[in-house]
Amino acid sequence: MYLTKDEQAILDGEKGAGAQKAMELVTALGKIYGADSLVDITSAHLSGASYKTIGEGGLKYLSDMVAGGAQVSVPSTLNPVGMDRERWKEMHISPEFAEKQIQIIDLYGKMGIKKTCSCTPYIGENVPKLGDHIAWAESSALSFANSYLGARTNREGGPGALAAAILGKTANYGLHLDENRKPTVVIDVEDMGDSVFDYSLLGQAVGMKMGKGVPYFRGIKPTVEDAKTLCAAMAAAGSVALWHAEGATPEASNFDISGLEHITIGKKEREEAYAKLNTVDDIQLIALGCPHLTPKEMHDIANLLKGKEKKRRDVEIWFCTSESVRSQCPEDVAIMEKFGPVLADTCMVVAPIEGTFQRTATNSAKAGNYLPTLCSQKVKFAELSDLMKVVE
Amino acid sequence: MIIKGRAISPGYAEGEAITYGEAFSFLGGVDGKTGKFNVRDGTIDGKVFLFPNGKGSTVGSYVVYDLKVQGHCPAALVNKSAETIVTTGAVISSVPMVDNVDVSLVRDGDLVAVDGSKGYIELKNVKQVDIVSSLLLCDGKFLMLHRPEKSHTYPGKWSLVSGHVEAGESPEEAARREIMEETQISVGYPAATAPVFMVRYADTIYVVHSYMYRVSTTDVKLNNENTDCMWISPEEFDADESVDGVDRVLEFLKSEF
């Protein structure tokens, strides 16, 4: 791999141990994926934020990085953490967990990372532009940035994205290169409904069918909310990090799709996807906001709930969004709070809900995939209006 | 013996080898507090850990760091093919790591040095021996020789026409000499050459140079190195009755039949 004089100097330790470690990691990862050089990035988004997922090893790693003086050099945001910073008691979080979680947030803050913690940084906080090279972790967010915004990132891991953020550079391979952004299969979508839930099912069906690759959709015109949901579902059911949609995404018109394999996703395929995720009917928790609720979704939910009352007192409802969206929507929040807490910067997947709940409902295919494995939950997977039948 | 690989995580370390034959996840595969394996017996603590490649949760990178903090870290890591999770764990934890190494050549208990800066490993207790292994082909059948029951290596097994490369001799010269000694058949230039590969036997790694010669006679005069011979087709070949590596030579050269 070609390194400039300055980059080599960092690798040789001339700019301190923290930068050297970051360069060792970025170059090692570049080497195993055949990168020819490094590329400057305009932003980073980091995973590895919840104490539940990174544990003591992660906490010690971050404190050692801070002690070594690590500082990010490009705008950087952070994934959701294991609890709402103020309202963790309502989430049944132990004080010990809360203390560790606050330490982790503070450590990221000390490295210059914005302390809003969301899986939808592209809703206001960190919005890459067409053609920007970025280093993003969080499978749904990086797919959104690649596909809907036309920025360029691989599926970075937490420490790799942090190293890239420190250097302002990442290794130039994979989706940073034109040739790897070409579609690999055409998805002909039939009988598509217009609810976000349909996009969860579509993403689940495509992820299950193709695993990885670059799908090119025909027959959908996703909104931001639809795209967010589709990205999350495909990245959880498969490992899709980039997709195009004819007439809807910025790079779609760049490619010639003649000769590509076609896959049809209709009602039948979406029903199969549904059957895979829906495993229980009676639930204890309804958790919405995977990925985090957008202002529009907050508004839609508030409208749905307005003037109603919660029937089932034994079922908790959580609304998960980012701090910035929560603070933008005070009227909606006021309505939603009658039904359950509007939690900021956390979600049901990265919070330790397994200590309190065994059966959780979601309208997100991503949560439907991860709740059983990461949170030991049985899952009711259903449309929002279905889930809201617990209120009247 | 030195085996060249690719530098992944810098640094140098030595330790006793511990191996795992399948893809390995640090999350779940090892206890992050003690270094004891969950998927096999033994510990990772202070060992050179060799396995084909990593898999599983990205949290695995932090498990390596946790092992480092707890003082139960592996001395070094060696992979056939490095991926993100193990690479990240090795680099952030300053554990030397090399990949592009055929880890199946290494046995538990080997004394291994790993140079993650230069990109090689050294098996301190293992010696390297260059050998030749020639496939003689006549009318779609090839020659196999039967080794004596008292042979030091692979007693009683069937082999191609094989022997050591002597000092000052090229592998091709050695092949021609061995064929003459063991069969009294004279050959010219090889019709095909297979890529060099390695096989492990006890504390030796044989570096195998293999060639194919087309011959026009099946008249073999054995010397005392072998007790019997046979001409067989590839379909009649039985790997269990043969020395290691003949299957690989056949695979390399099958298009020549």
Fold and architecture overview:
The complex is a heterodimer of chains A (392) and B (257). Chain A has a 5-stranded parallel beta sheet. The longest helix of chain A has 17 residues, at 51-67. In chain A, helix 7 runs parallel beside helix 8, helix 8 (224-237) crosses helix 13 and helix 10 (295-305) crosses helix 12. Chain A has helices spanning 5-11, 17-32, 51-67, 95-110, 139-147, 158-167, 196-210, 224-237, 267-277, 295-305, 323-328, 330-336, 365-375, 384-387; strands at residues 38-40, 44-46, 76-78, 135-136, 169-171, 185-189, 215-218, 244-245, 261-265, 285-293, 316-321, 342-344, 359-362, 378-381. Helix content of chain A is 39%, strand content 14%. The model of chain A has no long low-confidence stretch (mean pLDDT 95). By secondary structure, chain A is α/β, with parallel strands linked by helices. Chain A has 14 helices and 14 strands. The two termini of chain B are 35 Å apart. Chain B is elongated and about 65 Å long. In chain B, the strands form 2 sheets. Chain B has an 8-stranded mixed beta sheet. The longest helix of chain B is centred in the last third of the chain and has 13 residues, at 171-183. By secondary structure, chain B is α+β, with helices and mostly antiparallel strands. Classes of the chains: A alpha/beta (392), B alpha+beta (257).
Residues in helix, % of chain A: 25-40%
Largest protein interface? A-B, 21 and 27 residues
Structural class of chain A: alpha/beta
What kind of assembly state do the chains in view correspond to?
Answer: heterodimer
Order of strands side by side in the largest beta sheet of chain B? 1-8-7-3-4-5-6-2
